[in-house]
Amino acid sequence: MRLGLLIPSSNVVLEPLAVRLQAKRPEVSVHVSRLGVIDVQLDATSRAQFEMDAQVAAAKLLCDAKVDQITWGGTSASWIGIAHDEAFVQRVTHETGVAATTCVLDINRRLRKLGAKRLGMVTPYTDDVATQINRNYVDLGFEVIAASSDGGKLSHDFATIPPAVIERMVKGVAASQPDAIIIMCTNVVAADIADRLELELGIPILDSAAVTLSIVPCQKDEKREMALSD
Question: What is the per-residue pLDDT across 119-136, written as a single tens digit (0 to 9) for each?
């Protein structure tokens, strides 16, 4: 199984995590392409980083490696809107014939599988971006009952947030007893923290990076479900 992974150019978390996870599942290999992403803001310049033609073109490069699935490993749809990821998946699948999915769509599938309605949201973003994410999830039928954001704009800086800060943010939203907690950013070093706190708190914690590096059912093969983190 060859997983084609499209990631933000400033992401420094997903590839090291992929190396760790591949050691557990040697029958799966991960192959990476990058999309230019420097910052996360709501202005037109920042949103232009995710222009659809450029994003699809970057994804298509993975087809040269004959991948079996393409996953967008960014959480941009959480603030831009889920329709963006749905359109991305449709175009990539139609134009390449390769099954496609995204981190955010997979997070939402897991929430539905869990039956989670009341969410805790942890992000590294500014308050306005975090608020837009919460609004989008409310529009999807969820209730965001607790949220914590670190206030950052530059994508590369998200990976420097200390583990103690992430843990404090997760425990802060956990106090409201949500059905699930989402760590919404694939450039936050939180996979191990999420695993440990999930056991400690008894609340499902969906770390975006860990979700991205899972092979889940998508359009071309509804029977395949092989989580690398198992």
Answer: 999 999 999 999 999 999
Helix axes 82-96, 52-60, angle to 10 degrees: 40
Residue 185: closest CA among 57, 70, 37: 37
Copy the structure tokens of residue 217.
Answer: 């059912």
Chain-centre distance for alpha carbon 220 = 20
Q: What is the pTM of this model?
A: 0.91
Tokens of 62: 């993975």
Domains of the chain: 2-104 (3.40.50.1860), 106-207 (3.40.50.1860)
Torsion of the alpha carbons at 224, 227, 228 and 230, rounded to the nearest 10: -140
What percent of the chain has a predicted confidence (pLDDT) above 90? 88
Q: Which of 167, 191, 155, 161 is nearest to 21 (CA)?
A: 191
